Automatic annotation (TrEMBL):
Residues the record lists as binding substrate: 218-220, 263-265, 319, 376-379
Gene field: PFK
The organism's taxonomic lineage, starting at the top: Eukaryota, Viridiplantae, Streptophyta, Embryophyta, Tracheophyta
Domain named Phosphofructokinase: residues: 95-400
Lineage: superkingdom: Eukaryota
Catalytic residues in the record: 220
Protein name, entry field: ATP-dependent 6-phosphofructokinase
UniProtKB keywords: Allosteric enzyme, ATP-binding, Cytoplasm, Glycolysis, Kinase, Magnesium, Metal-binding, Nucleotide-binding, Transferase
Catalyzed reactions per annotation: beta-D-fructose 6-phosphate + ATP = beta-D-fructose 1,6-bisphosphate + ADP + H(+)
Kinase in keyword set: yes
Record's subcellular location: Cytoplasm
EC number: 2.7.1.11
Gene Ontology MF, one: ATP binding
InterPro entries reported in the protein's UniProt record: ATP_PFK, PFKA, Phosphofructokinase_dom, PKF_sf, PyroP-dep_PFK_TP0108
């Protein structure tokens, strides 16, 4: 599955360096479409609202902290209801599909898409696609109504089922066309959004009046541009339970060590935030921050020092951390799952055994190590209160955008305002913890752990940032996107 071509990107420029990275609209390839009054204006629930509709020119700035000499920078189209819509309620035939791994809040998003379509726009035909992308052509569909989805937000997982892979663009587009579906809501992570982008391109190529809208789902919080992904708050909250259990175990026995492995294949956001929230962690290891085991300043030396000081300690490690060390001692494989994610070795078990072996060999002190892996317990929980509210806003924003004729977009908050973001922006890179940023410094201060970085590593990180800054100031590509291939820096500037 390849990412969609960006030949049809919509870049609008203005004075003072204003750049709007707009999302596609049905009228881009189907001219003279009729419009209809938005049913919301007659909805009694909205009668108290001072302003029903979002101004068509409203945009949201990607960066809100700027210098006085800075250009206005990149903006995205603001999400929300429009005065005119491009679908009559009785003509809408929507479908919802969930793909990839589980995440708290998926059922809430499904529920709120269904209820939003029904109660805000009077849409009565909504289908659930059973079993991910392959469900379009290999499985049955489920009819969704407010009654059938009423209580699903109280359950973890997804009532529609999910799968990885199974993306056959032609078969999916054929199914959408044959069933008369004209709004497709796709809930999933970066691989799913890439698939959604390809489906949109095929729909556009066929000239169909079909909206493709994405709702980004990743428990790791590694989707770029948006403030955070849904389910992340719930995951952090649940991760604290595992950390607390590890702390109780470690603190109840002499030289106790609690090791907790959390999710974070490429990005250590859950581990970092759970560590900051719990206050019981002595060391947090994430993929973005290299570490080493033996020698001066290494992990083993720090563990020994902390045990002598406190008599116990808790280590949190993200699943993607230390994979380069692990591959040196265990035969590494380059196998991938059906979504294209590299299959990782279990770093939690590996590091637990390494710690045990080190202290057994040193004969300095007897340790008692307990290893906790709550990964699938965290993924399977229902979303908490804050995520439920967030999922509602995501779902309603997607519905408003689809009814207004926008397509080929994903929805999410940018600086606290929900926006429509073109697929290519959420597919171009992963969001990662910046270890030269204040948040990571706060964690180091909280745990009092070493950074495990040499002076050379810090110098290289700063040099990469300086290269990005210099590139931002001096160069731009034809569509306003800046790319430094050497440092893999992607950013934006004014034209």
């Amino acid at each position: 599955m390849g990412a969609s071509a960006n030949s049809n990107t919509k870049i609008v420029t203005g004075s003072a360096g204003y750049v709007l990275e707009d999302v596609p609209h049905l009228t881009d390839y189907i001219p003279d479409l009729p419009t209809y009054p938005n049913p919301l204006q007659d909805n009694p629930a909205y009668s108290v609202v001072k302003q029903y509709f979002v101004n068509v020119d409203d945009t949201v700035a990607q960066k809100i902290v700027v210098h006085k000499s800075s250009p206005r920078g990149i903006h995205f189209r603001r999400a929300g209801p429009r005065q005119r819509v491009y679908f009559e309620s009785d003509d809408v035939h929507a479908c919802i599909v969930t793909c990839g791994g589980l995440c708290p809040g998926v059922n809430t998003v499904i529920r709120e898409i269904v209820c939003g379509l029904y109660h805000m726009y009077g849409v009565k035909k909504v289908l659930g696609i059973d079993g991910g992308y392959k469900g379009f052509y290999a499985r049955n569909t489920v009819t969704l109504t407010p009654k059938t989805v009423n209580d699903i937000h109280k359950r973890g997982g997804t009532i529609l089922g999910t799968s990885r892979g199974g993306h056959d663009t032609s078969k999916i587009a054929d199914s959408i066309q044959d069933r008369g579906i004209n709004q497709v809501y796709i809930i999933g992570g970066d691989g799913t959004q890439k698939g959604a982008s390809v489906i949109f391109e095929e729909i556009r190529r066929r000239g169909l009046k079909v909206v493709v809208a994405g709702i980004p789902k990743t428990i790791d919080n590694d989707i770029p541009v948006i403030d955070k992904s849904f389910g992340f708050d719930s995951a952090v909250e649940e991760a604290q339970r595992a950390i607390n259990a590890a702390h109780v175990e470690a603190g109840s026995i002499e030289n106790g060590i609690g090791v907790v492995k959390l999710m974070g294949r490429y990005s250590g956001f859950i581990a970092m935030h759970a560590t900051l929230a719990s206050r019981d962690v002595d060391c947090c290891l994430i993929p973005e921050s290299p570490f080493y085991l033996e020698g001066e300043g290494g992990l083993f030396e720090f563990i020994e020092k902390r045990l002598r000081e406190n008599g116990h300690m808790v280590i949190v490690i993200a699943e993607g951390a230390g994979q380069e060390l692990l591959s040196e001692s265990i035969q590494s494989t380059d196998k991938e799952d059906a979504s294209g994610n590299k299959l990782l070795q279990d770093v939690g078990l590996w590091i637990s055994q390494k710690i045990k072996d080190y202290f057994a060999k040193q004969n300095k002190m007897a340790i008692n190590l307990k290893y906790i892996d709550p990964t699938y317990m965290i993924r399977a929980i229902p979303s908490n209160a804050s995520d439920n509210v967030y999922c509602t806003l995501l779902a309603q924003s997607a519905v408003h955008g689809a009814m207004a004729g926008y397509t080929g977009f994903t929805v999410g908050p940018v600086n606290g305002r929900h926006s429509y973001i073109p697929f290519y922006r959420v597919n171009e890179k992963r969001n990662k913890v910046v270890i030269t940023d204040r948040m990571w410094a706060r964690l180091l201060s909280s745990t009092n752990q070493p950074s495990f970085l040499s002076a050379k590593d810090i110098l290289e990180d700063k040099k990469d940032e300086e290269n990005c800054t210099e590139l931002l100031a001096n160069d731009h590509s034809s569509d306003g996107r800046l790319i430094n291939k050497e440092s893999n820096c992607i950013s934006h500037t004014a034209l």
